[in-house]
Amino acid sequence: MHLQIRQANIGYNTTLISNANADLKLGDVCLLIGNNGVGKTTLIKSILHQMPLLNGEISMNGKNVKSLSVKEIAENIAIVFSKSVIPQHYTVEDLISLGKYIYYPFYFELKKEDREEVAHIIEELDLNQYRYTLLKNLSDGNLQKAFIGRAITQNSPIIILDEPTTHLDEKNKIIILKTLRKLAKEQNKLILFSSHDWRLAKEFADKIWYVKDNQLYSGIVEDVLLQHEELTDASLFQINETFIPPFISAPQFHKEMLYSLLQKNFQKDLSALNFEFQNDFWVITKDSSIYQCESFEEIINLVPNIH
After folding, report:
1. Is the pTM here over 0.85, yes or no?
2. Domains defined along the chain, listed by start
């Protein structure tokens, strides 16, 4: 097992995560998820030994991280934090090339194979048109992709990313996550990334580390999601307390969309209604009455008139 956490208490003066036990192997893609302030970034810093454990042990390839030098940790882990210092006067190519610094003296010239690798990563991340652009002139999304490119170029067996998709639109989010999964599976990398969006796990992750109530829950994505209803429940976001939802039978995406629509627009008890998605139509029933709607707009107009 490549990364192991054993009976670890993680935090500062007080424990944020208690008695944590988890492990990941090379080739795994793991999503670290949890609300703000629960200790996700602190957990990452503990793996890097930037934050000492209050108790327990974190080991990497059988070695306690406490016994590793800064250089050994850098050789084993490439890290991208959500807020990074932007080097002045550096281009995208310059930044991504910096991933090689741990293999060379401070002043170095890339070998031919290194330059080819950097060019390939720039292309994979859809950054070709920005190759010679100064970092200060990039959008937040492309800047994030460039920092991720530097981590990939480092060629470490573990890549850890703190909120890597925060500033990315959907297209670039998918490019990044597909690239990370491809790295894990084709180059046997261990990828750990944090996010607030559990939906990413279903498509891109093998494992989940879920931090809740001072505990770290870990396992196969589908197992953890099913064990914690709040992660998949359409009513995850309550925006008004007077809304009582109806029964909804539909594919998960349609269910979530309908739930959001009704909650935003109706502050009342809708529990007497039944919604079922059939053949691209919504069939709504109340008692012996049956209604049919083709669009959400029709539902908005219909529901106030159902008595």
Report:
1. no
2. 3-228 (3.40.50.300), 247-305 (no CATH)
